[in-house]
Amino acid sequence: MSRLAPLDPPYPADVQQHFDRIMRGKPPLVLFRVMAGHPRAWERFRGGSLLDRGPLPLRAREIVIDRTCALNACEYEWGVHVTAFGAAAELTEQQVHATVRGPADAGCWSQAEQAMIAAVDALHVRATLDDAEFAALSAHYDEDQILEIILLCGFYRTVSYLANALALPLEETAARFPR
Q1: Which of 72, 158, 80, 68 is nearest to 104 (CA)?
Q2: Which of 55, 98, 133, 140 has the highest CB neighbour count under 10 A?
C-alpha cells in the first residue's frame, strides 16, 4: 500500500489529458496517480521529467534509466521500464540482468554502452565524473547526449526516491529484479 493515496478515476479532465499523453491508452501508473494528487509536485514532476524522446536513442536511454533505478534499489521503476521499453530497446535477457547484477564492463555491452554505464555508476557513487570517465563518454556521445545521460541519472534517482520512500506497490504487469 502506498504511503500516499493515489487518485482514483474519474480523473479531473486536465489530469486525464496528461495521463492519456504519457500512457498512450494504458492505465496510469501508481506513481503518476500519486503525483497527480498533488498539483504543485505533479507540475514540477512533469516539467522536469524528461518523458520526451530526447537526444539519446531509446536503447541508451533505457540502459541509463534501468541502471540508475537498479543502483537505487527501485524495483518499481526498473520493472516498469524493462516491461514497457526493454524489447523496443532490444535489450537481451542477459543485458536486462546486467543492469541490476552486472559490472559496467560486462561483455554483453558495447564499448559505448560500457562507458555510459560506468558514468551512471560514477554519478551514483560520487555525484561526478572524473576526466577519464568524461573522456570515455565523449568518445561515443555528443554534448547533448552527455547532458541527457547526466539529467536522466538525476531525474531517475529522484523517481527512485519517490517510489521507494512512498512504498509504491509494484505494478502487477511489471518485471521484477532478477534474483
Answers
A1: 68
A2: 98
Could you report the per-residue pLDDT of 105-142, keeping only the tens digit for each?
999 999 999 999 999 999 999 999 999 999 999 999 99
User: How much is the pTM?
Assistant: 0.96
Q: What nine digits make up the cell of 130?
A: 572524473
Can you read off the three cell numbers belonging to residue 40? Answer: 504543485
Helix (H, G, I), strand (E, B) or coil at 120: helix
| AA letter at 123 | L
Return the pLDDT at 73: 98
pLDDT digits (tens, 9 = 90+) for 32-63: 999 999 999 999 999 876 777 899 999 999 99
Cα gap 82→63, rounded to integer Å = 9
How many Å is the maximal CA-CA distance in the chain? 52
The CA dihedral of 42, 85, 55, 40, to the nearest 10 degrees, is 0
The HSE-up count of residue 140 (CA atoms within 13 Å, CB side) is: 18
